[in-house]
Each structure stands twice: as structure tokens, then as C-alpha cells.
């Protein structure tokens, strides 16, 4: 699936992501029929693709994911990217339908053991409630945009975006994929291979 074509096929994407522009070539995710733009513009900042990956559960493809970071930042580790207080993005495209309750539980489980969890509980509950609002169907997206002094803007197909406050929660969310105890070392390597 070509992300750029969504702008023409799905007018809802324009409503939900009015400040995002795709730039450059489309990069294909290995093992999936998904492409992501090489760069995007968010809130006037150009972000580069740091890598793409495929989250699998047993033999099934669950979702494709891409990570984006400010083009001016170089020579940084995956853990360093997770800690940064700069505009950044995680962009998920579902490869199979996942019930909203299951999606919410997966994120809550991933956040549960984070060292900052006592500070994260309210945002964790708000994110879970948002994800429970419906099934994430194949080819639906979930996007996490961290914007300093604003928070994390969470968007998903067919739903009004929400904003979750705080750098600490953004760091915990990015740690799911890039931290020392990430959900998959292989996925971590693949979504940071262009750093």
C-alpha cells in the first residue's frame, strides 16, 4: 500500500493529519505490501525516516511500523532517539484486524513495567480508552506524533485525534520499540537502520 495514495483515496486522512506532508521516495517494508515516505513534514519540521519494520506474532504479520526523526539529528542510538525532546513520529499500519481491547491491552502490558509507570498511569489509561474505541482493521493506521511543549498527538483511522501530555510518556512509548527492554530487538534494529 502506498501511503501517499491515501491522501487521494481517503479524505479522512486529510482531516486527521492536516499538518503532515509526505516528501521523497516511498520505502517498502520488507515482508509487507506497505510503503512509507522517506520524509514527512510535521508542524513545519522535516522528519527523516529512521527505518521500517514488521511486528509479527507467531507466523502472522500484525503491523508495519516506521519511525521518523528531525532531519538535523544524526549519530544517535535507538535509546537516544527514544529520550529526545524533539518532533518525532511512530507510524503503524495494521496488517491484520486487531480488536480494540486487544490493542489497548498490548500497549498497557508494554508500558506496565516501565520505571516511570506511576507517573504514566493517567496517560496509559487515556491511550487504552482511545484504542478500545474500535477494531484496528487491516490497512488502518495509528500514528504517534510527539511535539515538544504539546505532547503526543495520537491519530487513528476514522477517529478524532487525542493529545497525551508529557515528555515522560513519549519516552515510555518510544521505549516500547527502542528502549533497552523493547518488545523486539529485531524490530528495534530495523526501525533504526537508517539513523
Topology:
Elements: H1 3-9, H2 11-16, E1 20-28, E2 35-42, E3 45-57, E4 60-70, H3 78-83, E5 88-94, H4 100-112, H5 117-131, E6 141-147, E7 151-156, E8 159-164, H6 167-178, H7 185-190
Antiparallel strand pairs: 1-2, 2-3, 3-4, 4-5, 5-6, 6-7, 7-8
Count of helix runs = 7
Radius of gyration: 15 Å
Spatial strand order of the main sheet:
1-2-3-4-5-6-7-8
H-E order: HHEEEEHEHHEEEHH
User: Describe the biggest sheet?
Assistant: 8 strands, antiparallel
Provide the structure class.
Answer: alpha+beta
- Return the average pLDDT rounded to an integer: 89
What CATH calls the topology is Chalcone isomerase
User: Are there runs of 5+ residues with pLDDT below 50, and where?
Assistant: 1-18
Strand fraction: 25-35%
How many E strands?
Answer: 8
The CATH C-level class name? Alpha Beta
What is the CATH architecture annotation?
A: 3-Layer(bba) Sandwich
Shape type: globular
Q: Share of helix among residues?
A: 25-40%
